[in-house]
Specification:
The protein has 3 helices and 7 strands, in the order ααβββββαββ. By secondary structure, the protein is an alpha+beta fold. Among the domains are: about 55 residues; about 120 residues, Alpha-Beta Plaits, CATH 3.30.70.60. The strands form 2 sheets. The protein has a 5-stranded antiparallel beta sheet with strand order 1-5-7-6-4. Strands 2-3 form a two-stranded antiparallel sheet. Strand 2 and strand 3 form a beta hairpin.
């Protein structure tokens, strides 16, 4: 049997071919192409993640010593390995200015023996210091035992024990107009980044006002403040924080300002 291709048969075959091609194109656009695009996107995202991971690993390896130094410096802002007494004196001066009080005297006691941060049950032994005032009178300040002429405010001490810790104790005589000034002074000490502990606050009871126009003398408070340092970490002394001294007043003589 001889197959005869007529014009009509050719047109039907061409139309069928176009239909098949169109159907395959439709399948590719709707199914294959989105899958391929998603696969390419996933591969690109994976490559980016690998590149980011590699960069982070290089940064961690390169910055590891710097991170250790920054951590040590930050810790030494709170507990240095050197006394840094100048830093503490500047902090007291700033607290004096902010609280509108006047520091009459500062006595410093630095313990050569190993000290501890102790709780109240371990701080029951009496500490006596003699504070000299301008009128050449002396007051005996007792941290844990109250004198009849003084009021003593005990402050809860820190509860942590650290072997090798050393203590610097400041015996500060502060003159203030009222109690709020000394309270602000103590608050400023508590807000310092370096660990400071107000051990006690005592004061002499003021005289009773008998006349309306009678001027009352400023209140005098005796504050015992402790700070600490840890000399056992001798290898970190080179990382001790720098003391930020104020600018010079430009005086040629301490007697007056030119």
């Amino acid at each position: 049997m001889k197959l005869v291709w007529t014009r009509q048969h050719i047109l039907v075959a061409i139309a069928g071919l176009f239909i098949v091609i169109g159907f395959l194109t439709f399948l590719f656009i709707r199914i294959v192409e989105p899958i391929q695009s998603e696969l390419d996107q996933t591969e690109q995202q994976l490559a980016n993640e690998r590149q980011i991971l590699s960069t982070l690993q290089q940064q961690v390896e390169g910055e590891e010593p710097s991170i250790r130094i920054e951590s040590s410096v930050s810790l030494q802002q709170q507990l240095p390995v050197k006394p840094l007494i100048d830093q503490l004196l500047l902090a007291l001066a700033r607290a004096e200015g902010i609280s509108d009080t006047y520091i009459r005297s500062i006595n410093i006691e630095e313990s050569d023996d190993v000290g501890f941060l102790t709780n109240d049950s371990e701080m029951e032994e009496e500490v006596e210091v003699e504070i000299e005032v301008e009128e050449e009178e002396s007051f005996s300040l007792e941290v844990t035992e109250e004198e009849p002429s003084q009021t003593v405010v005990e402050v809860e001490s820190l509860p942590t024990n650290i072997e090798g810790l050393r203590t610097i104790r400041f015996l500060v005589t502060v003159r203030a107009k009222d109690y709020e000034g000394v309270a602000r002074f103590a608050e400023e000490i508590d807000t310092l980044e370096r660990i400071m502990n107000v051990d006690s606050i005592s004061y002499v009871s003021p005289e009773e006002q008998v006349q309306v126009d009678q001027e009352l003398d400023p209140l005098e408070f005796f504050i015992v403040i402790s700070s600490f340092y840890y000399p056992e970490a001798n290898e970190l002394k080179s990382e001790s924080p720098m003391v930020d001294y104020p600018n010079s007043a430009g005086k040629r003589t301490p007697l007056y300002q030119e």
